[in-house]
Amino acid sequence: MGKLTMNSRRAAGSIIRRLNKVTRKLVRLDQSTIRETLESFKGESSEVLFVHSSLSHCGYIEGGANTVVNALKGWVAENTLLAMPTHSWSYPTGNGTIPIFDSKSTPSLVGAITDFFWKQRSVVRSLHPSHSLACLGRGAAAFIDQHEYRETPCGVGTPYEKIATTKSSVLMFGATLDSYTLFHTAEDAAQVPYLYMRDKIVLKTKMSDGTVLDVPSWRQDMGVARRFERMADWLENEKLLLRRKIGRGELLFIPRADAVHDRMLRELRQDPFLLVAEHARKRIAG
């Protein structure tokens, strides 16, 4: 019976995936549709527009990642930096081998749009081995400079802290808040007890001159289940997040990342386990 049930689940999962693929192609989006939806977010220009993304969740996008990037470049204000996470998680393997992160060749593992973006002309990418960030615009190189020398991937002195503490905006293009990196920045600032693993690790990154730099870093403990995605409704109720429907998915827009960061700090200082999933709270608190 157990084997039959497992086979049935696999068959059902396969059918669902095929149906999703078919229905996604029935909902077609082009650059003008994306731009029109983006324009519905009114507000002041920001220092940085930080974009988390999913290429497939909103429907079939004609032209793929290039269409999305062009729509974003057309929408972002002239003096606003356009930034995306390009995480590679270049951690030591099970046999102890440490992969060398190369900002010119190591792929981004956080979506096709981000992997397309960092390869574009004039886009620069930070050298942090696990949580690199790609950036486009005036001052982009200075914005990401020295990321590889920070002892945390998203904490003090990193580009993520700059985004979280300045007049910047965040767009979740088809992505949920489950991938909202700046929650980790807030966790770091609030010094929650569960964020990092017990011991530092050493990562490796290839510098611009071809030398390899050892990067001592605290590794985030992702064995601690979070409830980031569930924070969307709370932030919307607090008028810190806006939603727009597009195709089969939606866009989530945070006009002021610093306002969200400040609020999260206040909440985390009262309840350090605010962002931890309910089922994991008791274990982590213990």
Task: Report on this structure.
- The chain has 286 residues and is of the alpha/beta class.
- It has one domain (20-285).
- It is 35% helix and 18% strand.
- The protein has 10 helices and 12 strands.
- It has helices at 2-26, 31-39, 65-75, 112-117, 140-144, 159-164, 182-189, 231-237, 257-270, 278-285, and strands at residues 28-29, 48-53, 60-61, 81-85, 100-101, 124-125, 133-136, 169-173, 201-206, 212-217, 242-246, 249-254.
- The strands form 3 sheets. The protein has a 7-stranded mixed β-sheet.
- Strand 11 and strand 12 form a beta hairpin.
- Helix 2 runs parallel beside helix 3 (65-75) and helix 7 (182-189) crosses helix 9.
- The protein is globular, with a radius of gyration of 20 Å.
- The two termini are 38 Å apart.
- The mean pLDDT is 92.
